[in-house]
Amino acid sequence: MLFIGDDWAEAHHDVELMDAAGRRLSKARLPEGVAGIARLHAMIGDQLGDEADKAEVAIGIETDRGPWVAALVAAGYTVFAVNPLQAARFRERSSVSGAKSDAADAHILADMVRTDSHQLRPVAGDSPEAEAIKVVARAHKTLIWERTRHTQRLRHALREYFPAALEAFEDLDAADALELLGKAPDPASAARLTRGQIAAALRKARRRDIEAKTARIQAALRGEQLGRAAVITTAYAATTRSAVAVLITLNQEVKALHGQVDAHFGRHPDAEIILSQPGMGPSLGPRVLGEFGDDPERYVTAKARKNYAATSPITRASGKKKVVAARFVHNDRLVDALNSQAFSALQASPGARAYYDKQRDRGLDHGPALRQLANRLVGILHGCLKTRTRYDETTAWSHQAEMPAA
């Protein structure tokens, strides 16, 4: 066995090679890229010699992604993605001085994989298809979050100088609202918008009940409102034009990336099973698959998948005191997707609704009850993926004593 600690930075890697007795064999600072990975392979080869084909190499590094990690996995090494918090606690266990350096961190990581590899999670062997889904699904969701942030900034600005726009437009990031705000970003120009201009924007956005909505928008824009000085209004109008331009671009890119998500997800063999789950749609499905990955050996049991998803609770017990709490450390993107699925499942699945109501009857608030439902749905998903079967309402909730009519 050969154990390696890899403390990475943007431009270089500090590495240390250690034997099974904890003795340092060699160390070096390697550049990022092809030259660095080639030198690491050479260092490993020098230590293993003729036993290279039979030896096992375990590497600890505080990341699970990037070309460097992919190259290590491709070389056949066992790579452990060490949580930085775990490494910090291990450092405190080994030394009380508080000293820290990149070379010392590489030593700590090598020692961790030597003594505590059974407590660490190897980098998952996800397929390239699953990795691609994760990339586009994350980018798509990030753009949606960015659109929400820019919309809130626009709403705040309009409240400062043009409150009538908030009354006129229900969805500030909608195509019709953005078109009209781009043409008339201040109260005076908005009051001059004709019914034809407003109706044309509504038709372009494929709105219904155009006549009534046109009249309502025009009345709101022409109604009396508190104003600001002309020079301040002009300044705010300039910022509104910029915000509108950003939101229009974000809408276009969100739509374009959604097409990429659909294309990648539709080709994956797990897509049909995941989409069969209650509350799981074409946006949530790729996010869940991307964050869980598709390595069939990663989650040995449903409990392991639930623990990774952070939907299962943790227990803190000491003496007579016992506290059950939600997991604080978790994958934010996965938790967000699973909570959204659980909320949608309340309408899509009678069994999910009954399970949620049962948790509420126990005295749980909406959030904890929804988390319990998400935990149950993760277990159902795990069973479906393991058995390669689609979701079945009756089978999934057979443990319930009473099932409401579908």
UniProtKB/TrEMBL annotation:
Keyword Heme in record: no
Protein's UniProt keywords contain Repeat: no
This protein's UniProt keywords: Plasmid
Span of domain Transposase IS110-like N-terminal: 4-163
Signal peptide extent: none
Pfam families according to UniProt: DEDD_Tnp_IS110, Transposase_20
Domain Transposase IS116/IS110/IS902 C-terminal span(s) in chain numbering: 272-356
NCBIfam families: transpos_IS110 (NF033542)
PANTHER family (alphabetical): PUTATIVE TRANSPOSASE FOR IS117-RELATED (PTHR33055:SF3), TRANSPOSASE FOR INSERTION SEQUENCE ELEMENT IS1111A (PTHR33055)
Protein name: IS110 family transposase
Species for this entry: Rhodococcus pseudokoreensis
